[in-house]
Amino acid sequence: MTGSNVESVGSELAAAVARRANPGRAATALVFARSHGLAPHVLEPLSELRGTRVLGAGTVGSASVFSVTAEGCVTPGLAGGILLTGIPSPLVRSSAACRLLMPLRVISKTRGSMVLEIEGVPALEVLSSVAEGLVDQPLVLVALAPPSPSQPAEGLPATRPELLLRAVQGVDPLRRGLIVSDEVQPGMRLAFAVRDAKAAREDLQLAVRELLREANGAAPRFAIYLNCAGRGQGLYGAPDVDLKILRARLGELPLAGMQSSFEVSEVGGKPALQLYTGVLGVFTSPS
Fold first, then answer.
1. Whole-model pTM?
2. What is the mean pLDDT of the chain?
3. CB 93, CB 55: distance < 8 Å
4. Which residues have a Cβ under 8 Å from the Cβ of 136 and sit 6 or more positions away?
5. 286 pLDDT above the threshold of 80
């Protein structure tokens, strides 16, 4: 399908998937959208889909998305997608290319898209304290995570937090707050972070190990990897670092993927727009 305007992309994609999905049967929607002007809230309608796992990515540059029908009709537009049915939903892990500058702490006060307080401390003060020792003035990002989950059962490892990376959009000196995103809510967890090659490599390796452990004997059939263009040679100083990590863990498993301006994967059970993130989906046969 194709979007008619940026604000309607999410609702049109959700409607198209709902029309084609079979109620009561698992499905996977791979959605792709032109990145220009697309804000995180635009994808919110995709969270209303039931029984459909959503993965996706944004195009790099200003080119349109081209959809091709089974009859060979090619149509350009703002967005398009592929619906996979008849196979189990994939196992999915996301890996953010960042190093946290502090432990995740609870957002205690917000106003719209502004974070005012983090565990009672003005957000601007928290940012100033953790960024004080940084050299070369790197871009400081905001890492958001859902509210803290319950403690894992005794003997089980703690799960990696699901992170959303966002830029600081502005500062309010009077309120000592930070403008981040409409997604921020009291109870969410937040940490400030910087892009980091070593942390990106280690987290992707851990993410793949977690995913294969979750497979629990099910035979992998093929995989999809959506990788932010910001995780490439500009981050690592060498090409194909993430791909080599995947090949070392997945062997010769068929793998399709793309570089993207943003990624779409579930956080807190809902599809969300990701930045500087690698999203791996592995499709398996039942064990």
1. 0.91
2. 91
3. no
4. none
5. no
